Amino acid sequence: MRYLMVCFLFLAACSAPLAADEADRIAVNNALDNFHNAAAGADWETYFGLMSDDAIFLGTDASERWDKPTFEAYARPTNGWTYTVRERHVNFAPDGNTAWFDELLDNAKYGTSRGTGVLIRTNGGWKISQYHLTFPLPNDLAKGITEQIQAFEERQKAGQE
Description:
The protein is α+β, with helices and mostly antiparallel strands. Helix content is 42%, strand content 32%. The protein is built from five helices and six strands. The protein has helices at 2-15, 20-40, 44-49, 68-75, 139-157, and strands spanning 51-58, 65-67, 84-92, 98-107, 111-122, 125-134. A hairpin with a 3-residue loop joins strand 4 and strand 5 (111-122). The model is unreliable at 4-17 (pLDDT under 50). Residues 1-19 form the signal peptide.
């Protein structure tokens, strides 16, 4: 009888619903994973369906601050892109309706990248409200790279690029 009681308690604990914060963490991670998978397959309906209507995508170039329609116009003619998640961290606002994340990504062309952003809870589930893709610079390379960027920007101002 005691064995049956222990088994019953174990099964009840295993079948108990997840705590809201753990369920939300899983849902946010699934949304981000689906976002990357959709981009890799050029499944633009799914990809842009995971973004809020007022979403902003910040690309790696300083000029790339795209609202959703502009980013769609850029992405739809492409065959997609593949970023594989190496590591991700997700945090939530106290009200549970906003999540933010940072993730390290691997890409065949660019190597290590970083994605950061914000998701909001909607009636349709968690939606990406902002995504920012960056190339993290090793500190030992930062001075040389930033000097190159400054020189490039000066040439652009002078009309040489």
